[in-house]
Amino acid sequence: MTYQAVGPMNTIHDRAPRQDGANRVLLVMLPGATHAPEDLLQHGFVRALRERRLPVDAMLVDAHADYYLERSIGERLAKDVMLPARAAHYRQIWLMGISLGGMGALICARDHPDEIDGVILLAPYLANRGTVAELVRRGGLDAWQPGGINAEDDEQTLLAWLKAHCSGTPALPAIHLGYGTADRFAAASEMLAQRLPAECVAATQGGHDWKTWAHLWEHFLDQGLFSGSATHDRPRAQTATDR
Questions:
Q1: 146 within domain boundaries
Q2: What is the rounded CA–CA span in Å between residue 202 and residue 242?
Q3: How many domains does the chain have?
């Protein structure tokens, strides 16, 4: 199938039953580069929310690879996701991104930090593996000195934002990270994990596949990220991970 990144993104909405109108929560779910919103349904990501009776509306976004290749992912998320969410008066907005969708989630959080309450990254693609290997060789994000970055280099600008991101700052959304230890992008996740609180990171056996992502997703849901959504503006993970 050939995609064209023009016009509004296609989305699927799944609304939680009996959600309190004054404390409505939206979870925006971004699949990987070759996946569609229907894949998130098929692999149980929305079902896991409903089985736990969490008061969270889900918006599954068809953020396919062409939006990234054409460098329009930020613009389209702003127009097709953030604008409608603001109009709907959600109390909280969370983002969840898988693989390349993790980059999209971070771009959205970077561009709208005051409007995003938390980000969940599953095996995120942060940069090409050569860039990540070079950063790791130099000591990771903490030791990296970006210098002059081309504004059109989306990977470098995002890495610079992650370097400056200080976990626990109320003005910034919390980042929660899960990945498989045999994932081909594990080096990027391990590098990012060094900058996050241990309780916000989950590593498990597994690769870059739906089984691993579904396991990590259920892990995060069981940590109470959304169970306190009605009373906390900036929820935080509550327990340690299975690393």
A1: no
A2: 6
A3: 1
Instruction: Tell me what pLDDT residue 22 has.
Output: 65
Residue 112, both tokens = 């709208």
Residue 11 host element (H or E): strand 11-14
Asked if residue 115 lies in contact with residue 93, where contact means CB atoms within 8 angstroms, the answer is yes
The answer to whether residue 235 is domain-embedded is no
Helix, strand or coil for residue 13? strand
Confidence of residue 238 (pLDDT cuts 50, 70, 90): very low
pTM across the whole model: 0.87
What is the CATH classification number for the domain harbouring 206? 3.40.50.1820
Q: What is the DSSP string of 163-205?
A: HH--TT-TTS-EEEEEEETT-TTHHHHHHHHTTS-GGGEEEES
Characterize the bridge pairing of strands 56-61 and 11-14.
Answer: antiparallel
The encoded tokens of residue 148 equal 């002059």
Amino acid at 224: G
In a domain, 159, yes or no: no
Q: Can you give the residue range of the structural domain that contains 57? A: 11-126+168-186+201-221
Please give the helix or strand (H or E) that residue 51 lies within, else none.
Answer: helix 45-51
What are the structure tokens assigned to 118, written together? Answer: 């938390």
Q: What are the tokens at 187?
A: 């080096």
Asked if residue 6 belongs to a domain, the reply is no
Instruction: Indicate whether 4 pLDDT > 50.
Output: no
